[in-house]
Records
---
Amino acid sequence: MKVGVLALQGAVREHIRMLEATGVEAVSVKRREQLNDLDGLVIPGGESTTISKMMGKYDLMEPIREMGQRGVPLFGTCAGLILLAERIEGVENAHLGLLDITVRRNAFGRQRESFEAPLMIDGVAEDFEAVFIRAPQITEAGARAEILCTVDDRIVVVRQGHLLGASFHPELTDDSRLHAHFVEMVKEAKSAHTV
Ligand code: GLN
């Protein structure tokens, strides 16, 4: 099993380390051809408009969207969550437009640009220490998206079948449980396709 980490911006090595901690092979991905043999892909945080432009420039937007439509598991964190969303407040066009949610960028306000919070994530952890950095908030989860976690009544983790999104940076701690959850999704998708 091989899981890629989109390596255009963000904490790529940290995501790779987390995935490896769960026992899968993890590779950094920059080129379109590399997408072909992946069983799953992580889209890290950074700055969503910059990552989106680079995805366009390197011809990655359409093939990643197709992967998502085909049922290959995708995990977006922070800016990666914004890239997955179908709707972004104040913006006409979404990026990948796969996840049935509305997001608000930089939603946690100036005074809280960066903070840590212990989270209860359904089916994942009861005490997940999460790092939020200029984080987006999920302001609406549509019927297809299942809410896995809220903080102060704001939605911060959702799952929609083979798609997982978190507003924080799960790669910046030593806790690999959310990555392990994603790897389980990758295993499920793979066995569903090979049976
Ligand atoms: N604020 C960034 C954006 O809107 C996301 C921040 C992050 O990924 N840490 O794209």
---
Amino acid sequence: MMPSLSLSAAIARVARVAKTGRGRTGARRASFASLLPAGGALWRSLTMLLLLLWPTLTLADIHPRDTLSPAADSADISAWFFWLYLWLDVVIFAIVAAGFFFGIHRFRKRPGQNDDPAMDLHGNAKLEIIWTVIPTAIILVLSVITVGGVFQISADPDREQRIIEIDVIGKQWWWEYDYKGYNFSTASEMHVEEDTQVLLHVRSADVIHSFWVPRITGKRDATPGRDYPMTFRPFNVGGEVKEFVGQCAELCGASHARMGLKLFVHPKDGPNSFEVWAKQQQDKAREPVSELEQKGKQVFTTKGCVACHSVRGVAELTQRSQSTGPDLTHVGARTSIAANVLPNSVENLAKWVKNPQSIKEAALMTNLNLSDEDSLAVATYLYSLK
Ligand code: CUA
């Protein structure tokens, strides 16, 4: 009879063994084997294999943080090495396992055989040389290829070609992006262009963070007093803006887990192009129109927000420092706030300005004790800053 391979049956069996200490066979001691379907070794092996492959099989759709679905050259190289090593290991495992099973089958003791001791291979120089030389050769070849890959990933960008250069500054708990040569700064949502070199200068204003967008690149530490370069070239996006999610990957304090980021890759041409976006970012802030927006601007400029935030054309900080909060000139155009913790909306902005710490533990943004009306007005004004 074909044993059941369903997950619910397996769970039921685990529960039964946990409760009674007995597997299907009635054995008193619950061993891992008793959790598997009864039947031959083949069925047990197949079940084991299925259980091991389960996480992979359920990833039929591309996971947003899947390092094996690369969307830029850098992540592509890393993924290539992952598959190279995986398949090489599969082949080596298969050869070793085949030799092992061949050995125990071919040289097993047969009925009527005498009790001679097994053949002693100790001191067989030929064999020992073979099983030393082969692994050494494999490791040497892999080392050379791997070091080549490391150099490829960390190569300087080609200065003859176009480069989008961005200072990335990790701060508790958000990311500041200063676009070199464009004269604007944005927060936590980075925009770049397809098939164009991107050069990041990853830094930190306080503690160690780590910039990571799994489908684009590996991780790069943001360390105080250091400037760690990182380069990548995003793949083509076929005319549409594509979104990739990232995350701070270094424990950096109470809200480390709420230090997310997004990366948008724009097409080269058309209304969705990077240059159209960058041009819009360079504009000064839009003037408030409605009464509520006007009130919001007034609250923004008089209740303390401008001590840390710039809005170009309204209030500009002359010096950016560790305590400086994000530039909000076009904050309404962002898709998320608080470093990808909440989707951007008037409602969420109001909640955030009213009590930042309720959304992000230990957030460094001051709670100004704004009234509900003032919070809503500021949120309405900020959301209008497209
Ligand atoms: Cu920044 Cu973790």
